[in-house]
Every structure is written in structure tokens, then in C-alpha cells.
Write a structure and sequence with these properties.
InterPro entries: Cu-oxidase-like_N, Cu-oxidase_C, Cu-oxidase_fam, Cupredoxin, TAT_signal
CATH topology of the largest domain: Immunoglobulin-like
Structural class: mainly beta
Low-confidence stretches: 1-13, 18-37, 326-344
CATH architecture of the largest domain: Sandwich
Protein name: Bilirubin oxidase
Radius of gyration: 22 Å
Number of domains: 3
Keywords: Membrane, Oxidoreductase, Transmembrane, Transmembrane helix
Pfam families: Cu-oxidase_2, Cu-oxidase_3
Largest sheet: 7 strands, mixed
Number of strands: 31
EC number: 1.3.3.5
Number of helices: 7
Distance between the termini: 41 Å
Length: 529
């Protein structure tokens, strides 16, 4: 079956924006290491079977020469039509649309230089299909991922997870959206088809010949790489044509390290209906939403009251306190304005004020779709249900020169400390603590991601010395529902409850500032019966 779904011109304009796309040359990197042999199939007759390839290609992002990128392409071998959906003209991988309960097999063939592995970000899958870097395969090899879709409906994604090169490979294009549907979601009759818009926000830098510019100097690795051009779905200067009616926007922060403070330019409240792990119990309205790398949100946006020809912008508002600041000292008020906070002299600073995309109302429609008052039923855990209610698993985040660490340790492929052993089918109380006083001016925000099942946030506590900068983002934190990534600010402790069910094995937890991850700010949980 052909995996390239014909998309109407309207959908092309929605996904690609009005304007032209372009792309750039990646530098040559030296690679080493090989992955293990292919895993055995979990089932004999999958519902969905996909052939996926990572390869080097060229596409147009900016006007002028095309840009060299690394791209996932896919062919649907078995399954419902529409399972694999390309974003026309984009370097991003195709959108994978899966249904809860489906048995999925993905045959991955690596054609890019060096090892590569795919992480199904946010999905609850067996260790061998989770994208642990020890399952990376070399160029020319093939590996099959087998898993059943256990997750509830939501916006998930997949991306390369190669040890010490996650940032580089995702930056050059190895990522794509993975959308799951279920019966509960379908019953809500949310906007769909042309009115359900996926939006992947990223930042990039380009050279004079439109080549993608990515540096791995120590400044960039410690602060995280930042670009100077904002792309949406792989396109600059993104414009979204809409009808005067309700839309569902699925938004992924696909940037390496940039945090976004998302708001509408006219001050309209942001209506959130879902986060990382799917639908919230009910819609929630915010003045803005804080979206850290790897986090996802779904928005309900009703353009019904707007005139044809009117415009509104989605923008990122200014904030402070997330980046290291030069000169040492405590207080967490650094804006990341120096080179150490830029990830390069020409980068747009983290916390800058800028436009992400323009929305244009281009036509009227006779539609009166209403926002549901109730979206979902969520089983909210209580602390007393945890296996360790009086002894939380505390993970200290430290940021010393050249060495971000978790509990003072760096990543080793299969290493597990005693306190990183977890009992299968248990609920664990976990604390992320970002209060390393010895770090002084090196303290910065860390988006912490745990592989496997999502978690629930119990509480957030910040030290008084960091309160001023903390409040520039805190009203946009989504603390309800299911999450798999949480931003831990300087001076903050975040307490959460995480189930470890169904699968034994090694499951990663790490900072999703990809340059920090590549500096080995990553560790394993070992789940055993």
C-alpha cells in the first residue's frame, strides 16, 4: 500500500504555511559503535506494519539552494489507509496515526552515517522497542520494533535517540509526530480532518548557502543549542489559513533546547484540552502556556467570531531565569543574554519575545462546534498509594562546568545504581530537585523526561530566592493530567507519581535539553519483577 497520502491543497497550506520551504548541508561526523542483533517479534500477525528509513536527502527551506537534511521516510505495508501521512515539502518524518490496541511492527532501515535508533516518545512499549541507545544499528542495518499501542489518545512523537548524538540527529531532521486515537476521544467529536492541525515548532540556524548550522562547542553544549530562525512543520515564516470556526491544534516543542511561552497576540486566553499524555479532564484556560523541549499540548481555538481577512499571531513572550548566567552568584535572575546563554553569538536568546506563526481567517463556514465541558476521566493517584510514600526517589540535578549530572552520575549504557532499581507493577514517588548551590551561576532549567508510562505531577516548590524569575513562566505550567516531560526550574523541586507496569528492562530518564542529554545527563531505571 502506498504510504504517501494525497493531501488536498487546503491541508498542504495548513501544514506547510503560505510560502516556500528550503534546507541545508550537515557537517560530516565521525561515528563509532554498533547495536545488538534484531529483536524477536512479539506477535505473528501485526495490525499495522510499516517500513521506515532514515536517509540523507535535500529539500528547500529558504529561498535559494536546497538544504541537506536527515529524514525519516515510511511506507505502509499493512494497516488502515491514513496510518502514514506525509507533511508535503517538509524535512520532518511522516505523521503516524495509530489506534489504541493496535499491534504495530516498524521495520527500520538505517541509511544515515553511523548508528541510529528510534525512540517512540511517550509510548508505553517494551524495552527493545523504546529506543534505548544500546539498540542502535549501524548504517546499512535493519531493526524491527514490535509493540501494542497501550496509550490513551494523545499527541506523541518519535525521534532519533543515538547516544551522544541525539541533538545533532534531531536537529538535522530525524523526528516526526505520532498521534494515537481511542474510543473516548472519538466520542467527543473534536475538530478533525482539515480542522485538526499538527504544529511542530523548532528553531534553526542557516549558513550562507542555506546549510543547517549546528555547533557542538562547550558553550552550546552547556546552555543548549539555540537557532535564530523559527520553523513550524519545517517551514519559516509560517502562515496558517483558517475558516471562521473551531480548530484543534496539536503542538510539539521539537526544539533542541528552546523553551516557548506561547500566547495569542491579542491576549485571547489559551484553551488547553490535552498535554503530553492525552486529554485533560476538562478544558483549562491560561494567559500563556510554558512549553519546554519535548512537551506537547493540544489547543481548542475558535476563530468563529473573527472577520474574514483578520489576523492573529501565536507568539513567544519574554521570560527569565532559565539559562545560566555569567559571573556566578545565586538568585536565578539570568536571562541568558551572554554567549553562554545563546548557544552561539547569532542565536535568538532563550526568553526573547518573537512571533512563531501568523493565522489568517480566509473564509466563513456554517459550523457551530462547541467546546465539551468534560473531556476525559483520569484516575488521579494519591501519594499514599506509592510503594515509597515516606522515602521518595530523589534525583538531584547538577550543572557543573562541562558536566551536567543526575545524582552526581553520568550515563553509562547499562549501568544502574542501587536506588535506580524499580519493582515491576509499582507506583513510585519521585522528586526532581534543581537546587545545586555549588553550581552558582551555572544553574538552569531542565526539562526532565522519563521513558515508559506517563506520570502525574503532585506539587512544585521553589525557593524564595528564585521566585522572581520563576513567576515569569509559572502561570503557564500545566500540572494536571498525564505527563512524560516536566520543566524543573532553578531552585525548584517537582514531586510526581510514576507507575512502572507491564514491562521489565532498562528505561531511561534524562534531561530533554538534547545537548545536556548528549553530555550524558541521562540514567537508567532497571525494572524487575
Amino acid at each position: 500500500m502506498n504510504s504517501f497520502i494525497d493531501i488536498k491543497r487546503r491541508k498542504f497550506l495548513q501544514y506547510a504555511g503560505i510560502g516556500t520551504a528550503t534546507m541545508a548541508l550537515a557537517p560530516n561526523w565521525l561515528w563509532a559503535g554498533a547495536g545488538p542483533k534484531n529483536n524477536a517479534y512479539l506477535f505473528s500477525n501485526p495490525d499495522v506494519e510499516i517500513r521506515m528509513t532514515a536517509q540523507v536527502t535535500k529539500t528547500s527551506i529558504l529561498s535559494g539552494p536546497p538544504t541537506e537534511v536527515w529524514k525519516f521516510s515510511a511506507t505502509l505495508l499493512k494497516g488502515p489507509q491514513g496510518t502514514v501521512e506525509e507533511i508535503p515539502g517538509s524535512y520532518l518524518g511522516p505523521i503516524l496515526r495509530l489506534r489504541q490496541g493496535q499491534k504495530v511492527r516498524i521495520h527500520f532501515h538505517n541509511k544515515v552515517p553511523g548508528p541510529c535508533v528510534i525512540h517512540q516518545h511517550g509510548l508505553h512499549v517494551p524495552e527493545r522497542s523504546d529506543g534505548h541507545p544500546r539498540y542502535a544499528i549501524d548504517q546499512g542495518q535493519t531493526y524491527s520494533y514490535d509493540f501494542q499501542v497501550l496509550n490513551r489518545a494523545g499527541t506523541y512523537w518519535y525521534h532519533s535517540h543515538t547516544h551522544q548524538y541525539t541533538g545533532h540527529r534531531v536537529y538535522f531532521g530525524l523526528a516526526g509526530l505520532l498521534l494515537v486515537s481511542d474510543q473516548e476521544e472519538r466520542a467527543l467529536n473534536l475538530p478533525s480532518g482539515d480542522y485538526e492541525i499538527p504544529l511542530v515548532i523548532q528553531d534553526r540556524q542557516f549558513g550562507q548557502q542555506n546549510e543547517l548550522h549546528y555547533t557542538r562547542g562547550m558553550h552550546e553544549r552547556m546552555a543548549g543549542f539555540l537557532g535564530n530562525r523559527i520553523l513550524v512543520n519545517g517551514f519559516p515564516d509560517f502562515e496558517l489559513p483558517v475558516a471562521a470556526r473551531a480548530y484543534r491544534l496539536r503542538i510539539l516543542n521539537g526544539s533542541n533546547s528552546r523553551i516557548y511561552k506561547l500566547a495569542w497576540s491579542d491576549g485571547t486566553p489559551v484553551t488547553v484540552i490535552a498535554s503530553d499524555g492525552g486529554l485533560l479532564e476538562k478544558p483549562e484556560r491560561y494567559p500563556y502556556v510554558t512549553l519546554a523541549p519535548a512537551e506537547r499540548i493540544e489547543l481548542w481555538v475558535d476563530f468563529g467570531g473573527r472577520k474574514v481577512g483578520s489576523e492573529i499571531k501565536l507568539q513567544s513572550l519574554p521570560f527569565s531565569g532559565t539559562m545560566p548566567r555569567m559571573g556566578g552568584g545565586m538568585g536565578g535572575r539570568g536571562h541568558g543574554r551572554g554567549r553562554h546563554g545563546h548557544g552561539g553569538d547569532s542565536a535568538l536568546p532563550n526568553g526573547a519575545d518573537f512571533s512563531i506563526m501568523k493565522v489568517q481567517v480566509v473564509r466563513k463556514e456554517n459550523e457551530n462546534q462547541k467546546l465539551p465541558r468534560r473531556l476525559s476521566t483520569i484516575r488521579n493517584y494519591q501519594m499514599q498509594e506509592a510503594e515509597n510514600p515516606d522515602h521518595p526517589r530523589t534525583i538531584h540535578l547538577s550543572m557543573r562546568p562541562h558536566s551536567p549530572r543526575l545524582n552526581g552520575r553520568s550515563f553509562s549504557m547499562t549501568a544502574v545504581a542501587e536506588e535506580e532499581g524499580v519493582k515491576l507493577d509499582s507506583l513510585q514517588l519521585i522528586e526532581f530537585v534543581n537546587r545545586d548551590r555549588r553550581a552558582r551561576g551555572m544553574m538552569m532549567a531542565h526539562p526532565m523526561h522519563i521513558h515508559g508510562q506517563p506520570f502525574q505531577i503532585l506539587r512544585r516548590e521553589v525557593l524564595p530566592a528564585f521566585q522572581q524569575s520563576y513567576t515569569t513562566l509559572s502561570k503557564g505550567f500545566i500540572n494536571s493530567g498525564w505527563r512524560d516531560t516536566v520543566l524543573v526550574m532553578p531552585g525548584e523541586k517537582v514531586t510526581l507519581l510514576k507507575p512502572f507496569e507491564d514491562y521489565e528492562g532498562l528505561f531511561l530518564y534524562h534531561c530533554h535539553n538534547m545537548e545536556h542529554e548528549d553530555l550524558d545527563m541521562m540514567r537508567n531505571f532497571q525494572v524487575r519483577a
